[in-house]
Amino acid sequence: MEGISSSISNRNIVAALPRDLSGTAGSSSDGGEERGNVIIVNITSTSSGEKWWKKVLEVEEAKQQVLFSLPLILTNGFYYLIPLISVMFASHLGPLQLAGATLANSWATVTGYAFLIGLSGALETLCGQGFGANLYKMMGIHLQASCITSFLFSILISFVWFNTEPILVFLGQDLEIAETAGIYTKFLIPSIFAFGYIQNILRFLQTQSVVRPAVLLSAIPLVFHIGITYCLVHLTPLGFKGAPIATSITLWISFFMLAAYVLLARQFNLTWQGFSTESFSYILTNLKLSLPSAAMVCLEYWAFEILVFLAGLMPNSKSTTSLIAICVNTETIAYNVTYGLSASASTRVSNELGGGHPEQAKSAMVVSLKLSVLLATIVVMALGFGHNFWAGLFTDNSAIIKSFASMTPLLAISIMLDSLQGVLSGVARGCGWQRMVVYVNLITFYLVGVTVGSLLAFKMKLYVKGLWIGLICGLACQAATLVLITMCTNWHMIAAVV
């Protein structure tokens, strides 16, 4: 059929026409050339491949979302690498430093960084819809309110981090490792304030579709970070302490660069009109969205940490913990790859709803979902062909590499589901459904995922596979619930009340 279609492209088709009653021939209304009782129509046919793509995907919308999401993926990856590089430098100082720095970084992520990422999610709704509705001044007000909120919670997080050692000892961690992790976390405390401000500014830029400059403004600090960390760890008496100090310094450098960009760039003259005390009156508005948004993120992060903890309770816990850690890291990296589409969905939906275009918002959501499936498929195929190589980057243990190979089919399913729910969660943030999704995550991840996983792992003796099957059940329920919510949504009603 493709050959037939191609052969008629750009051809003149000749067809007989009956004369009108007067016997005269006029010009054709459809743009063809009429001669007597014959009309010659030029038909330009697109290839069957183009037709197929147009039916499956809105190419222009998809192109815009891909160009939008790629810089976000890079920016997110660069900020992910900053604390990780510090851990790598600290880890080379010895086994105790390796264990302490790794534990401290995980602790800082689940108790601080993840929470602040979630808090900034309020701006995806408030600034996104404000930009779509041309309420430009309010975007700067909401940014300031969100920064105030982040500052207040950063103070609370600082108290938790300062007492990391006794908390970890209470949770059953080795005394030496807990002490080392406690030291590392204390010197990370300055970073938490900068990190919160950075996330707010990134959301402020994202909702205005300003994403490319953020790549440069995160890449430059990352390059400096490598040099700063090396100098503090190896060329000063700080040693181990130099690694977390370097993270704090780099994040503050990044914040000042982002802040200077917003203050000095002319394109933000409308959305940033200076500091205003009016922002204090919008703190409560911010909290109504930021707290549920933070809960959304933390519930998912904590669920994965629980899996690692449960793996430590199994026979041969060193191997099972290593295996589940590789799986969790793989899932996290795969999610970070598709994260850009989640942010794209949030921005596009919130902008269109704010502009009073419900059908465009719905269309943008559908395109994001299709792209997420496509991208997840590519990741899954790469994992399927290269799982042994990938596992070898984490360990030299042949038994663990072999076990990871048997986990690959389950990982493929969870990555696909996680990609879908990530985009749907982005849509939820764009619509302002954070509170609803908190309950969805709580039920699906814990009541379903952790419960089913624990039963399969310990009662059915499936161990790590059982835990991951439970996670898949939770992700499937989460994705199905979010799909049902979006299908039942009255988009016109949402656009009317924005």
Automatic annotation (TrEMBL):
It is a multi-pass membrane protein. Its main location: membrane. InterPro entries: MATE_euk (IPR045069), MATE_fam (IPR002528). GO terms for molecular function: antiporter activity; xenobiotic transmembrane transporter activity. GO terms for cellular component: membrane. It is found in: Membrane. It holds the Pfam family MatE. It comes from the Eukaryota. The keyword Repeat does not apply. The chain crosses the membrane at residues 66-90, 143-163, 183-202, 214-236, 242-264, 371-393, 438-460, 466-485. Keywords: Membrane, Transmembrane, Transmembrane helix. One of its GO terms (biological process) is xenobiotic detoxification by transmembrane export across the plasma membrane. PANTHER family: MULTIDRUG RESISTANCE PROTEIN (PTHR11206). NCBIfam families: matE. Belongs to the multi antimicrobial extrusion (MATE) (TC 2.A.66.1) family. This is Protein DETOXIFICATION.
